[in-house]
Design goal:
Layout (H helix, E strand, L loop, with lengths): L1 H15 L5 E7 L4 H14 L3 E8 L1 H10 L4 E4 L5 H9 L4 E15 L7 E2 L1 H8 L17 E5 L4 H11 L13 E3 L2 H10 L3 E6 L8 E2 L1 E2 L6 H5 L6 E9 L4 H11 L1 H10 L6
Parallel strand pairs: 1-2, 1-3, 5-10, 6-7, 6-8
Antiparallel strand pairs: 3-11, 4-8, 4-9, 4-11
Helix pairs in contact: 1-2, 1-10, 2-10, 3-4, 9-10
């Protein structure tokens, strides 16, 4: 990891070609957060006069910060909604979108759970509270503990569009679901409870949780790129108008080969 960061720092220095100074505020998606942290580390190493402040809180919070003028870059794991874009534009901060990586949202269970494959229909049944026992899905006779993201999350928005609305209806996650504020919190909760199910971005898979295939297709770089995985999405950065100066240099770096290598190293799928 340190070698990759060091190489990226050398490449970004060559890529920018000039010194920058100032502070960059970055807010929003917890999914994009680990990639942005790595990119910021490499960028600041090559540009020591630049300070990058990064905080999560969810894609909706990133959009709000861009609208309010309290961030230079909004991280979003979903597309900005038309109402959000209009509010930003009305405030003189017309958003510019940059897709920096691709991601898969992966249903996850505890490794002790024998279930390893589900359909979108089954996931909808679980999250609407119609399927309540693992034995209905080929697992043990145990109540399903449903873990979901809060509504400010871009991950939740994608899950809502791809799973909760998969039957053409605007279904909601049932009231008994346990809501978590980040991908990491979902992963920890599932790791601690063998009866649970949740969903996380591809970069958050680890040995303490088990990814579940959807409609017979496992999440991977290949299935995200070819469009066969049912719950894939783009990871975005938004700026208030066309970026300039150190903000532009940071985004250019993330879209460069060095930045795309960091995306792959983080567990995401490069767009270039």
């Amino acid at each position: 990891m340190k070698k990759i960061i060091a190489l990226a720092a050398v490449l970004v220095m060559a890529f920018t070609g000039s010194a920058f100074a100032g502070t960059i505020q970055v807010k929003g998606s917890t999914t994009v957060l680990p990639l942005m942290q790595k990119a910021a580390e490499a960028f600041m190493k090559a540009n020591p006069n630049v300070s990058i402040s990064i905080s999560g809180g969810g894609s909706s919070n990133g959009a709000k910060a861009l609208i309010d003028g309290t961030t230079d870059i909004a991280m979003m794991s979903r597309d900005m909604k038309s109402a959000e874009a209009q509010k930003a534009t009305d405030n003189g901060r017309a958003p510019e979108q940059f897709i920096v990586a691709l991601d898969c949202i992966v249903p996850v269970v505890n490794p002790a759970n024998p279930v390893s494959a589900l359909t979108k229909e089954q996931l909808l049944g679980i999250y609407t509270g119609k399927i309540t026992n693992w034995k209905e899905l080929g697992g043990e006779d145990a109540q399903i503990v449903v873990i979901s993201r809060d509504t400010s999350s871009g991950t939740y928005d994608c899950w809502k569009d791809k799973i909760m609305h998969a039957d053409g209806n605007k279904n909601r996650v049932f009231a008994g679901a346990l809501l978590q504020a980040s991908n990491g919190a979902v992963a920890q909760a599932v790791a601690k409870n063998k009866k649970s199910i949740g969903y996380v971005g591809l970069a958050y898979l680890n040995k303490e949780i088990k990814g579940v295939s959807v409609d017979g297709i496992s999440a991977s770089v290949a299935t995200a790129k070819d469009g066969s995985y049912p719950i894939a999405r783009g990871l975005n950065l938004y700026t208030p108008g066309k970026p300039a100066g150190e903000v532009k240099a940071l985004i250019d770096f993330m879209m460069s080969p060095a930045g795309q290598n960091l995306a792959a190293d983080t567990g995401f799928i490069p767009v270039k």
